[in-house]
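Known limitations

Files may contain more than one protein. Parsers should not assume a single record per file. Below, a two-record file is shown to illustrate correct handling: read the sequence, read the token line, then continue until end of file.
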Amino acid sequence: MITNLGLATVWVLDQDSAKEFFTDKLGLEVRDDMTLGEGGMRWVTVGAKDQPELSLALMIPGPPTMDPDSAAQMRALIAKGVLGAGAFNTDDCQAEYERLSARGVEFVHPPQKRPYGIEAIFRDDSGCWYSLTQTFDELDETVPWNG
């Protein structure tokens, strides 16, 4: 029986830069930063302090998970900014938007009311986009989906 999600992959172009972005700008904590075996791949994970059961693996496309052609295609998609990597929840979207903006986080859209909550969209330093969402207890169908 599956009980929860424990690890999610975030594809990045540079692990050092991504680690800095997720910790210094977003405020997540480093869980792991090691090399797996002699000459092996680097394993970097981060996560929210109050959510120890879920980590984000900051992975560079390439071996051993991808062949060179697939890795090149994935790097191109990351750099193009077309990959969405998930949603971060917050209790106050406007305040978190202001805090993260002051730390240099690039927002594509400022907070906007949606049927499911208040949402802002930002990019990480590799180009992947994320939702920053303050969810409503109930769906508000009077709010248009397109803001």
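...continuing to the second record:
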Amino acid sequence: MSAATGAGAGADEERGSFYEAVGGIDGLRRLTESFYVVVRADPLLAPVFAHFTPTHVEHVAVWMSEVFGGPAGYTAELGGHPGLIRNHLGLSITEEQRARWAELMISTAAKELPDDKLLQQRFAEYIEWGTRIARSVSQPGVEPGSPGPVPQWGWNGLV
């Protein structure tokens, strides 16, 4: 099977694909919906996300779906990795905001994703890695160049 059908990005014969293990798109939608409820109530992040819509929440789920080996919907519909990078340009994300976003996403994942130590660890590693990239490209004057295809993340981390 290919990543587009859900078995790439770190498939493990015993565990199946990482995408399947997180619950597929339905699991990622539950995660992002729960996460943004928390974000909108957080004093540091609420002002940053006050104008974000349910569409944004869905886009985050579709992004993670593709990163974790599910369907390539972000690439097909939303501009792929270059599109995601463009969405962060000029946002001037602070380290405090990045760290809080990561902390809240990881704690929400601990509640919403399966209680599997390796899954939770790999998910947290992805969030830390990805938020550092988002912060770096969000700084004024950054020219991101060509970021390449959507990264793939699985049971062994970055594929």
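Parsers that stop after the first record will miss the second one. For reference, the second record is described as follows. Strands lie at 153-154, 157-158.
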